[in-house]
Write a structure and sequence with these properties.
The protein is an alpha+beta fold and 35 residues long. It has one helix and three strands. Strand 2 and strand 3 form a beta hairpin. The longest helix is centred in the last third of the chain and has 6 residues.
């Protein structure tokens, strides 16, 4: 579960770890990859 997907202006998801909104582009970049 990555979080709740919201459709506001841009596609953003709520990161359960930081609890902040991050753009899907960052996700594609691999920001949420396992370290």
């Amino acid at each position: 579960m990555f979080g709740l997907f919201k459709k506001e202006k841009r596609d953003v998801f709520t990161a359960p770890v930081t609890g902040e909104l991050m753009p899907l582009e960052a996700l594609k970049d691999g920001v949420f990859r396992k370290r």
